[in-house]
Amino acid sequence: MSEPLLRTRGLCRRFGGLQAVAELDLEAHPGEILGLIGPNGAGKSTTFNMIAGTLAPSAGTIEFAGRSMAGLLAHDFAACGILRTFQHNKPFASMSVLDNVMVGMHTKIGLSLWQVLATTRASREAETRCRTLAKALIEFVGLGERQSADVSTLSFGQGRLLETARALAGSPRLILFDEPAAGLSPVELLRLGEIIRAIAAQGIAVVLIEHDMRFLMSLAERVIVLNFGRTIAEGTPDEVSAHPAVMEAYLGQAGAGAVSRAHA
């Protein structure tokens, strides 16, 4: 396996007396699909918020492409290539699908405010490039026929696909997917799985939080399991599915014992 693109060491986050994440060591590699699972309150979203730069760690380190991310802000993380989707669709209201995706390119345009306001040749060429790429990304996620539509007219599932296109618009090296399968139909789930595999095939690292275990286990190459902010298991989908601590975390001690006896 290649050198890790993302590496955390001893990552912690406390909220007053609550330890949300404790001593988390995590690695994600280019082209890998890594699953991050755990019961509600396990620390998954807090971990994503730290990796995306929207929440500062209480302790520990985050390195991306060999660079310490200490002291950087969320827009710096995005500029480095760490992009994310959210549990709930967050489109820019009263804008078209195309314009929403173009907004996702703001960290990559490389123009000064003066160039944009003055409508220079460079700004016009940059806008043309952005528009062409945005259209290609919209086609990629299957929304080609809706590129001119107002985002308010999208179904929930289409909104999830828009979130993916907008994240890709930032030229990511790492994408954090936060429950992308929530609310999707079986057909939309199949399409989303194809999209995530295609993203990883381009060498982009994918870290995936998902409560739909069948969907996640069909995609992930490795899975990390959190409970009460701590890693309780790590390995292949088959390995973590059979891990006693994982069954106990999801089913309770009695339930895990019944499953173990059933497999004995």
Account of the protein in words:
Helices cover 41% and strands 22% of the residues. Mean pLDDT is 86; it is low at 253-264. The protein has helices at 44-51, 74-80, 97-103, 113-117, 121-140, 156-168, 186-201, 213-219, 237-241, 244-263, and strands at 6-15, 18-28, 33-37, 59-64, 67-68, 82-84, 174-178, 205-209, 222-227, 230-235. The longest helix is centred in the middle third of the chain and has 20 residues, at 121-140. Helix 3 packs across helix 5 (121-140) and helix 3 runs parallel beside helix 6 (156-168). The chain has 10 helices and 10 strands. It has one domain: 3-Layer(aba) Sandwich (Rossmann fold), CATH 3.40.50. A 6-stranded mixed beta sheet has the order 6-7-8-3-9-10, sandwiched between helices. By secondary structure, the protein is an alpha/beta fold. Strand 4 and strand 5 form a beta hairpin.
Strand tally is 10
Order of SSEs: EEEHEEHEHHHHEHEHEEHH
Report the β-strand fraction as a percent range. Answer: 15-25%
Estimate the mean pLDDT confidence: 86
> What is the approximate shape?
globular
Q: Which structural class should the secondary elements be placed in?
A: alpha/beta
Helix content: 40-55%
Topology readout:
Elements: E1 6-15, E2 18-28, E3 33-37, H1 44-51, E4 59-64, E5 67-68, H2 74-80, E6 82-84, H3 97-103, H4 113-117, H5 121-140, H6 156-168, E7 174-178, H7 186-201, E8 205-209, H8 213-219, E9 222-227, E10 230-235, H9 237-241, H10 244-263
Parallel strand pairs: 3-8, 3-9, 6-7, 7-8
Antiparallel strand pairs: 1-2, 1-4, 4-5, 9-10
Helix pairs in contact: 3-5, 3-6, 5-6
